[in-house]
Amino acid sequence: MSGAGAMALIGARRHAGRLGFLGLVLAYAVLVAVALATLAVDGDLSLGRNPLANLAKTAGEFARPSFLDVWFGDPQREYRSEDGTLLRVEDRRAVEAGFLRQLGAAAWTTFVIGTLGSLLGAVLALPLGVATARNLGASRFFSLPAKAILDATRSIHTLVFGLVLVGIVGLGPTAGILAIALHSMGTYGKLYAEAIETLDMSAVEAVRAVGAGPAQVFFNGVWPAVLPQFVSAHLYIWEFNIRDSTVLGLIGAGGLGLLITEATALFQWGRLATILLVVVALVSAFDAVSRRIRKALL
Questions:
Q1: Which positions ≥6 away from 189 have C-beta within 8 Å?
Q2: Per residue in 204-242, pLDDT tens?
Q3: I want to staple 133 with a disulfide (CB 3.0 to 4.6 A). Which of 70, 142, 196, 203 is the partner?
Q4: What is the reported pTM?
Q5: Can you spell out the DSSP letters for 152-167?
Q6: Tens digit of pLDDT for each residue in 64-101?
Q7: What do you get for the CA distance between the two ends of the chain, in Å?
Q8: 220: exposed, middle or buried (C-beta count within 10 Å: 0-12, 13-18, 19+)?
Q9: What is residue 78's three-state secondary structure?
Q10: Which residues pair with 77 in a beta bridge?
C-alpha cells in the first residue's frame, strides 16, 4: 500500500472513530432525556415545600458542629414543657464530652471493620485473580468459576451483603467485616488479574524453562513484578472501604453509621456535622499515609 493510501486509511479510521464516539454521546443524551422525562411524568422532580428555607435552616445547624459545646455549651441548660414546667437541667458540656468519647470508640470500630474486611477480601481474591488472568493460562475449569465468583461479588453492594450477614451472624462488627470482604473480593480479583495481564511474560517463561512448578512460577516470576501494583490496589480499596464502612452501622454493623442513624433520626444536625468531620479527618489521614506508601513503592 502506498503512503497516500495508508494515510487515507488512517484518516478514514479516525473519522469512523469520531462518528462512533458522537453516536455514543447522542445515545447518552437520549438516555438522560428519557430519565428526566420519566421523573417529570411521575412528578418526582419536585423539591418539596419551602426548599430554600429548609436549606437555610439545615445549613445554619450544620455550621455549628456539636463538639463546640464541650467549651461553649450551656452548663445549666433547662428543658421545659409547653406550659413552662421545668423537666430537667442538663450540662451540655458534660453531655457533649461523653458523646465525643462515644464517637472516638465508634470511629475505631469503623476503622477496624474497613481494615479487617479489606485484608480478608484481598486474601480471598488472590487465588481467584490468578485463575482469571488470561496470560497465565489457567484451566477453564478453574478460570470460569473464578470469574463468575468475582463478577457476582463485585455486582452486589456492600449494604446488601451486610443485610444478609446481619441475619446470619447477628448485629455487630463481624457482619460488617464479612460484608466488606465479600464485596471487595470482586474488585481485588479484577485488579489482580489486570495487573498480572500487563506483565512481560519473558521473565515468567524463563522461570518455567528451568522446570519450575506453578507455585514456583508464581512466587518467582509473577509475584515480585506485580507486588507494587497489588499493594497500590490494596491501599486504594482499603481507603474506599473505610468510607464504605461508615454506613454499615445503618444496618446494625456498628461504628459511625449507628451514630449517623441516631443523629438523622433526631434531626441533630450539629451532631451529624461533628460525625462527618470525623469521617473526613479519618479518610484524609489515611489518604495522606497511603500516598506516602505508594510514593515509596515507585
A1: 125, 126, 128, 129, 132, 146, 149, 150, 154
A2: 677 677 666 667 777 777 777 788 888 888 988 998 898
A3: 196
A4: 0.78
A5: HHHHS-HHHHHHHHHH
A6: 888 787 787 777 776 667 776 766 777 778 888 888 99
A7: 44
A8: middle
A9: strand
A10: 90
